[in-house]
Amino acid sequence: xxxxxxxxxxxxxxxxxxxxxxxxxxxxxxxxxxxxxxxxxxxxxxxxxxxxxxxxxxxxxxxxxxxxxxxxxxxxxxxxxxxxxxxxxxxxxxxxxxxxxxxxxxxxxxxxxxxxxxxxxxxxxxxxxxxxxxxxxxxxxxxxxxxxxxxxxxxxxxxxxxxxxxxxxxxxxxxxxxxxxxxxxxxxxxxxxxxxxxxxxxxxxxxxxxxxxxxxxxxxxxxxxxxxxxxxxxxxxxxxxxxxxxxxxxxxxxxxxxxxxxxxxxxxxxxxxxxxxxxxxxxxxxxxxxxxxxxxxxxxxxxxxxxxxxxxxxxxxxxxxxxxxxxxxxxxxxxxxxxxxxxxxxxxxxxxxxxxxxxxxxxxxxxxxxxxxxxxx
Length: 377
What we know:
Elements: H1 8-16, H2 27-40, E1 44-51, E2 54-61, E3 66-74, E4 94-95, E5 98-100, H3 104-124, E6 129-136, H4 144-152, H5 154-157, E7 162-165, E8 176-177, E9 179-188, E10 192-193, H6 203-215, E11 231-239, E12 245-246, E13 249-258, H7 264-275, E14 280-287, E15 290-291, H8 297-310, E16 318-319, H9 325-331, E17 337-339, E18 354-356, H10 357-375
Parallel strand pairs: 3-6, 3-7, 7-17, 8-16
Antiparallel strand pairs: 1-2, 2-6, 4-5, 5-18, 8-15, 9-13, 9-14, 10-12, 11-13
């Protein structure tokens, strides 16, 4: 890398200093830092707002006739939380071999590594294929920015032959994740005086019966050999307005994690049949699963390349969280999608979040090697 390029660790620190806690997001402030760097290297850059001040950024540099490679990451973070931080969440301090602050691992280190690798590749002017960078808004709230791009601006994504998602994996290659869906179950009843419950219809009893059914339920879909079986968790329950009133309404929420064999619509329909007419199911959020087979040609090539760089082989693996890769893979017609990022998964969303400096530098070099191989540098 030449001295004219930003240092990926320093860029990570600079991005951490921008508070993009979601809500409200403020991703435009990160886009305002990254866009000039990319434009200066020859990328065409456009932004698409999913809400005021909340853009997703798409940068493109075309080389050669082949479909481009797409790198993606998100610009938002979760909030700093209510606990005290030792160094402060937005200082971006670099010390003891770590970059500290909210987003250090999830995933401003990934954004910085992508950007510096892309700027380096731009200087080498590959001949075979181009590069597309997609930096999204509101990933932390159901991958909203990626879904917005996929549904309302598919022309901005264009075509890509493969996708790399820079979510935190400690630089270990990951082939996919389960889908996630949140449902709200509503039960209706009839209010009455608590001394005469026979005159009412208790909605809490209906909700309790429904939750009891869910506690023992196992989906019919076959488990995935790597990602495992579908799971569900009842996360909240509420209802009633006074102890001496028969409750006319109650509701609960359910978190579902779905393997590739079970689509969100199928899972919701299956639970609807289980719970019957006493429960109205409303979808709060849904992200489809993501999986690419290790035998797919690009995936096999990248895994082999990383194995040589690390001096180790990699067994097929998944991660427990969801990513923008699901929406982007679907929008791009099923392009093979790899998750590979410098952040430490165990540091995501925690107080005193950090990321090893060595991970950031290694990821930058990995991304550059992968991009050179695809683009023909």
